[in-house]
Design goal:
Strand content of chain B: under 5%
Order of helices and strands of chain A: HHHHHHHHEEHHHHHHHH
Helix content of chain A: 55-70%
Shape of chain B: rod-shaped
Number of helices of chain B: 1
Structural class of chain B: mainly alpha
Radius of gyration of chain A: 23 Å
Largest interface: A-B, 29 and 27 residues
Largest sheet of chain A: 2 strands, antiparallel
Oligomer: heterodimer
Number of strands of chain B: 0
CATH architecture of chain A: Up-down Bundle
Radius of gyration of chain B: 20 Å
Number of helices of chain A: 16
CATH superfamily of chain A: Formate dehydrogenase/DMSO reductase domain
């Protein structure tokens, strides 16, 4: 029925199955929309945020999706700036995942600010002493970069690409993509870092406060580093999920192993820095503020010392060890365990740096403040997941996301597809002979 | 915020924050403008060569 819109040389499921998938995700999305409307109409009293928790589930989700979406900027940097050619086979999917993550982050912020119609205030009446201003600037600009990176993919849809303007625009955008990728890396470095910096400068909250290099606390660098390290794990995890659901291999093993290896070494170096930071904080910074390490981890129902061990040991050291060891990295099962642990690890780090910071008592007469989200908060946090599933379903069906899919899953092409493929090849040849580079 | 806004102050904070923002926006704007202009030229060239006998 819609096969004329599929990429050339691939097979997709029946439209009824596709629509059923969309409907299931759509129901979850609607649930989120109900929560969103309640928050916008009735206000933030729909949440369980209070004087202790000005930042809560939404901000954790925000920080987590931004870290997980870090795969887009880091893979883009490796592909376009460092010229690692193999990554061209996964960069499209990294961009799509990044686009979903960042649009989700902006959506969550639009709910959290309470009055989204005044969102432009942060640009016009900017507080230049706030790290969150820098985050807002970089986040918005980087979302623009991701949109620019996603547009050529849309234009390469089989039917759209027949329109000469769309075809040329996609080609020209690919041609200067390195400029956009470099801008994206610059913006990502600063907003990922500033999100960490927000916690690190809280001198009134010794659990979060860290020493500085110039104006930047150590958390600034750790957040950027962790996003670059763990982001590719999320790209690999979603690629694995897509392969399982579609029942096809979509990316070659050598590409997955290469990205896993890079991610592994990044996690390895990050976790060394994180351990050094934690030791210094526990032995020097916190005692200088009158606290011991166990003050932050005892006499409460949730935040035991286990959370530190899980974050750094189980979800940091273990995935780093697996991914830097060639034999374990080559084994799909152990690699999958490592990338799942990595994804949990970075989410847990963001949870600790947002929620536990709020929970720890800072005054001698104070007690631990626990927080449980309302259903409206949960629904609006799950909303982006449903939105992401829908966008992936549509993009996978109609856009050439995986360049190696045709080669890995050969099918007998229909006569019309053969003619189209020959026309495309002739057009590419003509461009190359005119001195223009072929589309990446 | 622009330098002609009443809130603007010529200090390091405003120059660095807003300078960075305009710098990034300029790169994106110039990049996209280049792509669109080149696309219009390429498309026009294509249609010219198609219309030739």
């Amino acid at each position: 029925m819609d096969s004329a819109l599929w990429p050339i040389g691939v097979k997709r499921c029946h439209i009824s199955k596709f629509l059923m998938g969309l409907s299931i995700a759509g129901v979850v999305l609607l649930w989120g929309v109900v929560g969103l409307i309640l928050c916008w109409v009735k206000g933030l009293n729909q949440t369980h945020m209070n004087d202790y928790y000005g930042f809560a589930l939404w901000i954790w989700a925000d920080l987590a999706v931004i870290a997980l979406g870090g795969g887009a900027f880091f893979t883009g940097l490796l592909r376009y700036i460092f010229g690692i050619r193999e990554l061209k086979n996964i960069i499209n999917y990294a961009v799509l995942i990044g686009f979903i993550c960042y649009s989700s982050a902006l959506l969550i912020l639009a709910i959290d600010v309470g009055q989204p119609l005044r969102s432009w205030f942060i640009f016009w009446h900017a507080n230049v002493h706030s790290m969150l201003t820098e985050v807002a600037f970089c986040l918005s600009c980087y979302f623009g970069v991701l949109t620019i990176e996603y547009i050529p993919l849309i234009l390469e849809n089989r039917q759209l690409n027949k329109v000469p303007f769309a075809h040329h625009l996609a080609h020209n955008m690919h041609h200067i993509m390195a400029v956009f990728a470099a801008t994206g890396a610059f913006l990502s470095f600063f907003h990922q870092g500033s999100l960490g910096g927000v916690a690190g400068v809280l001198f009134g909250r010794p659990f979060a406060y860290r020493e500085h290099i110039l104006i930047w606390p150590y958390t600034f660098f750790l957040f950027t580093w962790s996003a670059a390290a763990y982001g590719p794990c999320f790209t690999l995890l979603i690629t694995w999920l897509t392969e399982k659901i579609s029942g096809k291999q979509l990316v070659k093993e050598n590409v997955k192993q290469l990205l896993a290896k890079i991610s592994g070494w990044m996690i390895f170096t990050y976790i060394i820095a994180k351990i050094a930071d934690t030791v210094y904080w526990a032995l020097v910074t916190a005692p200088s503020k009158g606290f011991t390490l166990m003050d932050f981890y005892s006499n409460n129902p949730i935040y035991g010392i286990w959370i530190l061990i899980v974050e750094i040991g189980v979800c940091g050291v273990v995935p780093a060890w697996i991914l830097v060891t060639p034999r374990l990295r080559a084994n799909p099962k152990t690699r999958l365990i490592a990338i799942i642990l990595g994804v949990i690890g970075v989410c847990l780090n963001r949870w600790v740096m947002v929620l536990q910071v709020m929970a720890v008592p800072v005054l001698s007469f104070d007690t631990w403040a626990m927080y449980y989200p309302s259903w409206q908060e949960v629904a609006t946090t799950i909303l982006p997941v449903a939105y992401g599933v829908i966008l992936i379903l549509i993009s996978y069906r109609y856009l050439p996301i995986f360049p190696q899919e045709v080669e890995l899953n050969p099918i007998e092409p229909s006569p019309s597809e053969t003619v189209e493929a020959m026309n495309d090849a002739a057009a590419e040849d003509a461009m190359v002979s005119n001195g223009e580079p072929a589309t990446a | 915020m622009f330098p002609f806004s009443f809130e603007w102050i010529w200090d390091m904070g405003h120059m660095v924050f807003h300078g960075g923002l305009w710098y990034a926006l300029s790169i994106l704007g110039i990049g996209m403008t280049y792509c669109i202009i080149k696309t219009i030229i390429d498309t026009a060239r294509d249609s010219e060569s198609d219309s030739r006998p």
